[in-house]
Amino acid sequence: MMDKLSFTMENYLEAVYELSGESGSVRLTDVAAWMNVTKSTANTAMSILAQKGLITNEKYQQIYLTDAGLETAGIISEKHHIIQRFFTDVLRIDDGTADTDACAIEHVISGKSVTAMRDFLKDFSKNSKI
């Protein structure tokens, strides 16, 4: 089984996931900009993710998620979106604060809590429509 990723590595993996979109790939420059770091710092992170088998990253080439990377990043991203939506839709927190807080919380929240939030949001959405 894969070692647990640090919060920072989870954020880099999520950045690759969010930025890769339909093309399935992303450039190092875009990851560095998204994370607000230098290309050198982003490249170091990509090397770590590649060593863990989560991305393929050849020098001066596009970055692609592996199947394992796609699965892991999808879980992280889903947590982020559920938490963020709970904050904005239920608690009426502004988008920026909700996004920042969701990013911090997604790394430490249990799967049970995320599932409860998701289930609550389903009921909340049904009951909110008039």
Automatic annotation (TrEMBL):
<dbReference type="GO" id="GO:0003677">
    <property type="term" value="F:DNA binding"/>
</dbReference>
<dbReference type="InterPro" id="IPR036390">
    <property type="entry name" value="WH_DNA-bd_sf"/>
</dbReference>
<dbReference type="GO" id="GO:0005737">
    <property type="term" value="C:cytoplasm"/>
</dbReference>
<dbReference type="InterPro" id="IPR050536">
    <property type="entry name" value="DtxR_MntR_Metal-Reg"/>
</dbReference>
<dbReference type="InterPro" id="IPR036388">
    <property type="entry name" value="WH-like_DNA-bd_sf"/>
</dbReference>
<keyword id="KW-0238">DNA-binding</keyword>
<dbReference type="Pfam" id="PF02742">
    <property type="entry name" value="Fe_dep_repr_C"/>
</dbReference>
<dbReference type="InterPro" id="IPR036421">
    <property type="entry name" value="Fe_dep_repressor_sf"/>
</dbReference>
<dbReference type="InterPro" id="IPR022687">
    <property type="entry name" value="HTH_DTXR"/>
</dbReference>
<dbReference type="GO" id="GO:0046983">
    <property type="term" value="F:protein dimerization activity"/>
</dbReference>
<dbReference type="Pfam" id="PF01325">
    <property type="entry name" value="Fe_dep_repress"/>
</dbReference>
<keyword id="KW-0804">Transcription</keyword>
<protein>
    <recommendedName>
        <fullName>Manganese transport regulator</fullName>
    </recommendedName>
</protein>
<comment type="similarity">
    <text>Belongs to the DtxR/MntR family.</text>
</comment>
<dbReference type="InterPro" id="IPR022689">
    <property type="entry name" value="Iron_dep_repressor"/>
</dbReference>
<keyword id="KW-0010">Activator</keyword>
<dbReference type="GO" id="GO:0003700">
    <property type="term" value="F:DNA-binding transcription factor activity"/>
</dbReference>
<dbReference type="InterPro" id="IPR001367">
    <property type="entry name" value="Fe_dep_repressor"/>
</dbReference>
<keyword id="KW-0963">Cytoplasm</keyword>
<dbReference type="GO" id="GO:0046914">
    <property type="term" value="F:transition metal ion binding"/>
</dbReference>
<keyword id="KW-0805">Transcription regulation</keyword>
<keyword id="KW-0678">Repressor</keyword>
<feature type="domain" description="HTH dtxR-type">
    <location>
        <begin position="1"/>
        <end position="66"/>
    </location>
</feature>
<keyword id="KW-0464">Manganese</keyword>
<comment type="subunit">
    <text>Homodimer.</text>
</comment>
